[in-house]
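Recall the central idea of this unit: under ordinary conditions, the amino acid sequence of a chain determines the structure it adopts. In this exercise we apply that idea directly, starting from the sequence alone.
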Amino acid sequence: MTLNLGVLISGRGSNLEAILKAVADRRLDGRVALVVSNRAAAAGLEIAARHGVPTQVLPHQGFPSRAAYDAALVDALRAREVDTVALAGFDRIVSGTLLAAFPGRVVNIHPALLPSFPGLHAQRQALEHGVRVSGATVHLVDEQVDHGPIIAQAIVPVLDTDTEETLSERILAEEHRIYPEALQRLASGRLQVVGRRVIGGLP
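Accordingly, the structure predicted from this sequence is:
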């Protein structure tokens, strides 16, 4: 199937750009129907505009609850006939309201080899724990933070000379590679979720 993607961002939008490039190169059977940011200053909005993709700024301030904000997100996404939601540097935890609207179709990228180092500053956590490898994970989103079934992972060695910044940059390069690949697996219809396992994902 062709994915009709809604991409949620909060910042520079580098994973959004990787998705858009994959679509343009026909490596991803889909289109980005809408980019939504909760922050008006997000640089990713300019990336979307350069590619002719509709954008919407939906600030989270002023909503009485996370669910109320997510209900507004759902309305915006459905108005563009979105069927799959890709979180790409979106700095908010999504609620069951969004997940119920797009069951099994909300995807996230995280800069660690989950289940290790969920949450914020995953690269810093990896360095502080002294691990020898880290990486990136694409997973389906559930109601726990960085917890849902894993679609794809990529391993990145941790060097003795690494800082949080250098490790982050090398992990980001892998994110840009595996996120479109994982979305293409979803588009192919070959993914099957059994419990917390995904069959037909990437190694």
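The mean pLDDT is 94.
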